[in-house]
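Lab notebook: predicted structure, single chain.

Context: the supervisor wants predicted structures on file for every construct in the current expression panel, including those that have not yet been purified. This is the next one on the list. No modifications to the sequence; it matches the entry in the shared construct table.
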Amino acid sequence: MGFRRGWAQPALKALLHPCLHWSEPRIEIRGRVKVLARLAASPAPKPPSTYDLRHGQIHRWNGT
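Prediction complete. Output recorded below exactly as produced.
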C-alpha cells in the first residue's frame, strides 16, 4: 500500500468530521471528502496551529 493510498483508510475517515473546515496558508477546504482528496494529492501537512473537535472528530484544522 502506497503512502497516498493510506489517506483513504477507514480509520482516518472516522477521525474527520463530515463538515470539516480545513485551513492552510492560501487553502480553504470544507468537507471530509475534499480534505481526503487534498491529503491524497499533496505532501503531508504540518501539524496544525489549532484544531477543534466535535463528537470526537476533527471539525476544524488551522494549519500554519
